[in-house]
Amino acid sequence: EQAYYSIGYRFAAISLIATASILKILWKEVAESNERGDRERVRRIYERTNRVLFMLGAVISGFLVPWAAEIIQFLLGDAYREGAFVLSLMFIYPIHQSLGQVIGTMYYSLELTKSHAIIGIIFVILSIITVYFLLAPANANIPGLELASTGMAIKMVIMQILGVNLSIWWLSRSQGWKFSIIYQFIGIGSFLFVGFFTKYSVSFLIWSGSPQIFKFILTGLLYIIISGLVIYSMPWLLSIKRSDIKMYIKI
Questions:
Q1: 3 state SS for 84-115
Q2: For 128-151, what is each residue's pLDDT tens digit?
Q3: Residue 228 DSSP label
Q4: CA-based Rg of the chain, rounded to a whole angstrom?
Q5: Neighbours of 98 (CB within 10 A)
Q6: Residue 208 CA, distance from chain mean position
Q7: Which DSSP category does 138 fall into?
Q8: Is the C-alpha dihedral spanning 160, 166, 169, 172 positive or negative?
Q9: I want to staple 240 with a disulfide (CB 3.0 to 4.6 A). Which of 66, 119, 217, 244 is the partner?
Q10: pLDDT digits (tens, 9 = 90+) for 36-69
């Protein structure tokens, strides 16, 4: 069970590479704009970075979640196949983890360290309580659900979503910005739907005896095309306009 969770966590970390590379730039730009009193530029930088990194994570996770069992079997063998559900949950984890790192950077660059610390302490306490009830044996003095690696993955994903959105709400409230999470539901839901749709469409149309790697590549190409159409039809998910997308395509 520890191995299932550990494998899922390591796969999830791959999606954070883009986030790690952009945080120092974000910190610098936000701190400079805040020092000059340019609140509108701070809002634009934050919103654009937030949405782009979130959707990048959603696109990656939307493709990988349906393939969790095949990825486990191909890379690690049948012995770890039962960890597919844990891995699929952990593929969702980096989506909000990237938001959490962006939000943390915003709190520090705007000198809201006290608020950031209080929110962090609250969710550490809640996480300890939650993880106990998810992992504790059913026959303990205070019984738990005994969910092992699945419980740990559920805790990581749910507490991450709740903690990040509380931090976003407080940041928006303190800065006088509009708070909205609709893009999170639509983004994750849309790309997960596209991921399962493309996988099962390719599996249905292609000969069942075809190599899995061939199906994987073909599904990936179809997924990229449809995901591009989703973004083009809903550019507000990235906090941009359709004219911006056309300009990027020309470039």
A1: HHHHHHHHHHHHHHHHHHHHHHHHHHCCCHHH
A2: 999 898 888 888 888 888 888 788
A3: H
A4: 20
A5: 26
A6: 32
A7: T
A8: negative
A9: 244
A10: 888 888 888 888 888 888 888 899 889 989 998 8
Helix, coil or strand: residue 201: helix
Amino acid at 192: L
Rounded Cα distance, 206 and 156, in Å: 36
Q: Write the DSSP symbol of residue 209.
A: T
Q: Which amino acid is at 249?
A: I
Q: Which residues contact 118 (CB under 8 A, 6 or more apart)?
A: none
| Residue 137 DSSP class | -
The per-residue pLDDT for range 184-211, each reduced to its tens digit, is: 999 999 999 999 999 999 988 887 777 8
Chain-centroid distance of CA 233 in Å reads: 21
| Alpha carbon distance, N-terminus to C-terminus of the chain | 48
Q: Hey, how many other C-beta atoms are within 10 angstroms of the C-beta on 17?
A: 9
What token pair was written down for 243?
Answer: 């004219």
What is the distance between the alpha carbons of residues 58 and 97, in angstroms, rounded to a whole number? 11
b/e map 35-59, b = 16+ CB within 10 Å: eeeeeeebbebbbebbbbbbbbbbb
